[in-house]
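Ticket opened by: R.M.
Priority: normal
Category: complex prediction / small molecule

The reporter submitted a protein together with tryptophanyl-5'AMP and asked that the result be attached to this ticket for the collaborator who will pick it up next week. Submitted input follows.
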Amino acid sequence: MPDASPRRPRVLSGAQPTADSYHLGNYFGAFKQWVALQDDFEAFYFVPDLHAITVEYDPALLRERTYVAAAQMLAAGVDPDRSALFVQSHVPEHAQLAWVLGGVTGFGEASRMTQFKDKSAKGGQDSSSVGLFTYPILMAADILVYQADRVPVGEDQRQHVELTRNLAQRFNHRFGETFTVPEAHIVKATAKIYDLQDPTAKMSGSNASHAGVVDLTDTAKQAAKKVRSAVTDSGTEIRFDPQEKPGIANLLTIFSALTDRPVDDVVAEFEGQQYGHLKVALGELVGDFVQSFGDRTRELLDDKGELDRVLAQGAEQARSVAVPTLELVYERSGFVAPAGSR
Ligand code: TYM
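Result attached by the on-call engineer:
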């Protein structure tokens, strides 16, 4: 049973350490929301290293990327005094719960996950790992093991949160009320930031070229150049029209998110000006942003001892919630408790 005593609602999210850095899409689609939500929610944010091994990877690189990931989450404003920040593999209950949830997941419903279809299409389904296929079940476990109420993510994760809701409801129905049924928290305006070189594709660390992906480790110069070189649309008028002008709409979205101003306001500012003006101004803004973001990240990375301490504290907080949930799940599942454990 979810805690009987009243508690603050919980929020949980993670971002994979599968690239050398997170990018602007991760920042606006996810991190900005994570940071805002930690005021009103009991927050759990983590680096899903177990998810990262479902595609081919290099262990030494994963170790380094896990630290960079944690440092970037902190640089984005995750506050370890208010939120549990941890590494997924430090909390074994995620993997344990994933196994149990696998028993209530249909093969057909897992097969319908579009992220799996997209990712496996790249290398051919036969060479995809079983881990990539069951990945969304682990994600459901990540969420349910904390009885999370909200899950702030970008649009591309909506289907996984939907699956999580279905699994929670199914388990509750079969075995008695056990899980909180979570809701996705998706901020429409920034739910999908597009690649600057291809404004019909989402900005993604796995895009073949990084010319259209602003990494949070880019220098001011690199980032400004990427923005100035963004592919824009035919015509000259600056207006927010995602259908007709996806390139300009993407730039306006980023401008608005970065300055916390309504898009209309930004459009008004550039009225009568050329695309080039918008690109130069946004290039400078984005350049300044990644520069200070990078400075903060490097400072944090300089003290791995402190990062380790923050992550250990986060894992301890996380386990204080995950362990009792798993105990309840095991009991509901009919597993005999080891003698002396209760
Ligand atoms: P991941 O690692 O691909 O992305 C991390 C977060 O960034 C969002 N995002 C974007 N938002 C807007 N525009 C973009 N171009 C863009 N690209 C990425 C993603 O939607 C996500 O919120 N399966 C998850 C990681 C995960 C997770 C979880 C998330 C594992 N367990 C539990 C929430 C709860 C993933 O691959 O996200």
